[in-house]
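Bench notes, afternoon.
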Amino acid sequence: MKNTVEIPESERHPLETGQVILVDKPLEWTSFNVVSRVRNWAHRQMGRRVKTGHAGTLDPLASGLLIICTGRFTKRIEEFQAQKKEYTGTFVIGSVTKSFDLESEVMPGGDYSHIGEKEIQDAVKRLTGPIMQVPPVFSAVKVQGKRAYQFARADRELKLEAKPITVYEFEITRMALPEIDFRIVCSKGTYIRAIARDLGDLLGCGAYLSALRRTKIGDFKVEDAHRIEEFLNYPQ
C-alpha cells in the first residue's frame, strides 16, 4: 500500500477546502457536461483532482443557474438542493408532447379559442400552494430499479405516484396565446414540465413547456453566475 501524506490545512487550495461556484448552464448542455468542465478547470488550478458535484439537475433543454460544489462543500449539496427555486419560461397551450417539453414531437391538442385570462388565472390558482404532482414519465424518477425515462423511451406503460410539492408563487408575465410566459417559485422535487401538463389538463386543451430558465436557488441568483465560456480554455 502506498503511503499517503496529509496536506496541512493551511496549504490546502480553496477549491479543496470547499467552494460554491455558480454557473449559467447553456441550452443543450447537460448538467454533467458542466460539472465535467468545471472539474477539469479545478484540476488545472490545483494541479490535482478535487471532488466536484452539482446541486440540482437541469435538463439539456433548460438554461440557467447550476450550483457546483467543490471539496468539502460537496457535503452541502443536499442542503442547497432543498432550497426554493425560481424559474421563468414559456408554456404553449393547444398542443401537447409525450415529454411535456420539446424533447419529443409536438402534436395537436384541443381548441383554445374560448380560453382567456380568467380561465388561465383560475387554473394558475389551482396549481399554486401545496399540491400533489405526478412526475413526468420522461424523468429520472426511479421505478423498479430503473429510471422512468427508460420505460417511457421503450414505450412501456408506467404509472407514477403523485408526490407532495409546493408552488409558492405562480405569476403569468406575458400572455400572447398560445404562448404564456411565467415565473414560478417552487419547492424541491417540482417538475415544471408537469405543471405544463396539469395546466393543459385544467384548460382542457393540452399544453407543453417550450422554454425554461432557472433564475434562483435560495439566495443564489443567475445574475451572479459564471458563463461557461470562462471554463472553455481547459480541455475535457
